[in-house]
Write a structure and sequence with these properties.
- By secondary structure, the chain is an alpha+beta fold.
- It is built from 6 helices and 11 strands.
- Helix 2 crosses helix 5.
Length: 238
């Protein structure tokens, strides 16, 4: 039986080793461009998520928020008034509130040392410049917020949630607008709140216009050599 099991165990061990990406098997100093691109494409610090739509706001809610155009569906036209029949009215109202399925976006723990080093080694040009030493999470390729949805509003509708701890609100938000009508939005959270290896899951939530983005990061996964990697060393910030 031993002779039968041994090849199976060797095969299983080979599969487990093959499943480990190359960047996990080397020190950061030995990463090459391929290692860096692997990490930036799919790793515990890099998530791909599809936002979901929030319901349209009522007129009173829009008035309370100070923006009558925020969170309102398209017009229903003449059909929606019922003049042309109830069926056409129902269809017009449904059509007015139907939105295209949002495209996936990338959520990246931007301040993590492995991410920043991978960006350098991969020669990535889209990475935002971080202007503080705080935790930074970036949403890439999100439809550009309308003029009324300024950084101050985005700041008030995002948070990090740690298990059995008070929600962390961002200290600042930066919108980097692109020519293709998308944006990179960078959320900075206070470094003064320590995120340790025993935190478990870290939930990130953000509202952009009427879109909601939500993702989890797990401290057991975002580690190298047994320590969570969520910040650049202060002396190594760029």
């Amino acid at each position: 039986m031993y002779r039968t099991m041994r090849p199976c165990l060797l095969f299983l061990a080979t599969l487990l080793l093959a499943a480990d990406p190359s960047w996990r098997l080397k020190p950061i100093s030995q990463w090459d461009a391929d290692d860096a691109k692997q990490l930036l494409a799919d790793s515990p610090w890099v998530k791909h998520v599809t936002p979901h739509w929030l319901p349209d706001l009522s007129r009173s809610q829009r008035e309370e928020g100070g923006n009558l155009n925020e969170g309102v569906g398209s017009g229903v036209g003449l059909e929606g008034t019922g003049v042309l029949g109830s069926r056409r009215a129902v269809a017009a109202i449904k059509r007015a509130h139907t939105r295209p399925e949002p495209l996936p976006v990338m959520v990246r723990w931007e301040s993590a040392l492995p991410v920043r080093m991978a960006e350098q080694k991969a020669g990535e040009t889209i990475a935002p410049t971080l202007k503080s030493d705080d935790y930074a999470i970036a949403i890439y390729d999100i439809p550009t917020p309308k003029q009324g949805n300024l950084a101050s509003l985005l700041k008030g509708s995002a948070f990090l949630r740690l298990y059995q701890k008070k929600e962390m609100k961002p200290s600042s938000v930066e919108i980097l607008r692109h020519d293709d009508e998308t944006a990179t939005i960078v959320y900075l959270f206070p470094r003064s709140v320590e995120i340790g290896k025993r935190e478990g899951g870290i939930e990130f939530d953000a509202q952009i216009g009427r879109m909601w983005v939500s993702e989890y990061f797990y401290t057991r996964a975002v580690q190298l050599r047994g320590e969570p990697q969520l910040l650049m060393p202060t002396e190594g910030r760029h």
